[in-house]
Design goal:
It is a single chain. With 352 residues, the chain is of the alpha+beta class. The protein is 28% helix and 11% strand. α7 packs across α12. The chain is extended, with a radius of gyration of 34 Å. The protein starts with a helix and ends with a strand. 15% of the residues are buried.
């Protein structure tokens, strides 16, 4: 059978349909035939099953054999067909709960409705982070707790009602001062919750796009080249006379990238853009929203340093490339952990 595998696919497909290309059987099945007796036998018993002829001796298919080999014609002429809906499995369109007898296949199954093929590649920065930096982050953030140490009870962050009023009994506590919602509690870094990049949002604000729509077209083209995803247009909420801005008018665009695309964008930003910015101190250390998300901005001169924009710089009109705001959303539970993650990746931070 080794010689049959060496033949090209077209020659193997044409073999059953040609009279002169008879299918050859292995030497083990021809042991009782006279053809096998005529073939020279090897003295080594382990080599007795090998064929003596080579696949290179197979003749080239003729033009008549090529014309006769039409599998699509046989499939079209086939009258009786099995109904696909009866003999083929289809996943359910709706999930009716975990107790229903028919369950949807997992997302990794190719037959699932939400199956997404891939990943087809592993970003270099992501692979480096998971193989090298993740263990270093656990080492840097390790907090030793001796055995038998009592656990500290979390403090109550909601304020109690003060007074002797009977209406205060069994009443929900008051919200904290300064914020309508409670911030996320910081959790210790362990092997279960190592901070990673979740998504990156790139946005640009073009207030002069109301008078010159070409600025919005250029801004959208720049974000499309930087991220590889089509940005969506954003509208202004208020009237600002100083910026000549009107409410509910198109004033910019934004896009969000996830997964491997976010890691590749971060790789280009750290290794190709940041080192080429002149007289740049870094990202301000006081940035962050308190929940593990970091934001910073780039000037129009910095946006031009992206390789996707730089290679087609002549395509954009002069002095129309806008700046952008970049918001990095991580799985960290505090700004301290998010900055530790970005510093390990290569993002510089500075403080006044």
């Amino acid at each position: 059978m080794a010689s049959l595998r060496g033949v090209s696919r077209s020659a193997r497909a044409l073999q059953p349909f040609s009279a002169q290309f008879a299918a050859r059987r292995c030497a083990s099945t021809q042991a009782g035939a006279g053809a096998a007796a005529a073939a020279p036998k090897s003295n080594i018993p382990d080599l007795a099953e090998l064929e003596t002829r080579s696949a290179l001796d197979a003749p080239i298919p003729s033009e008549e054999d090529k014309k006769e080999f039409r599998p699509w014609k046989r499939a079209a002429d086939r009258k009786a067909r099995l109904p696909s809906s009866r003999y083929q499995y289809h996943p359910p369109k709706y999930n009716r709960g975990p107790l229903h007898p028919i369950q949807s296949p997992p997302s990794s199954d190719p037959i699932a409705r939400d199956f997404v093929p891939g990943p087809f590649n592993m970003p270099r920065l992501k692979e480096t982070f998971r193989t090298v930096m993740a263990s270093d982050l656990m080492t840097l953030a390790y907090i030793h707790t001796p055995p038998g140490t009592p656990k500290k009870e979390p403090t109550e962050r909601l304020r109690a009602w003060e007074g002797d009023s009977p209406y205060f009994a069994n009443r929900a506590r008051r919200a904290p001062r300064g914020a309508p919602e409670l911030p996320i509690r910081e959790r210790d870094i362990s092997f279960r919750n190592i901070p990673e990049i979740k998504e990156i949002t790139v946005s640009t604000f073009v207030p002069l796009g109301l008078k010159n729509p070409d600025l919005l077209i250029v801004a959208r083209a720049v974000l499309l080249a930087m991220t590889g995803t089509m940005p969506e247009m954003t509208r202004s909420k208020n009237n600002v006379v100083q910026w000549q801005l009107q409410a509910n008018k198109t004033a910019g665009c934004k896009t969000t990238i996830y997964g491997n695309a976010a890691w590749e964008f971060m790789d280009r930003l750290i290794h190709l853009v940041f080192p080429r910015i002149k007289d740049w101190k870094g990202v301000p250390a006081n940035t962050g929203d308190g929940s593990g998300n970091v934001q910073f901005g780039l000037n129009p001169e910095d946006v031009q340093l992206f390789p996707e924009v730089e290679c087609n710089y002549d395509m954009y009109p002069a002095k129309m490339i806008p700046g952008c705001h970049i918001a990095i959303k991580t799985t960290a539970t505090s700004d301290r952990q998010a900055k530790l993650l970005l510093q390990s990746l290569g993002v510089p931070f500075y403080s006044n």
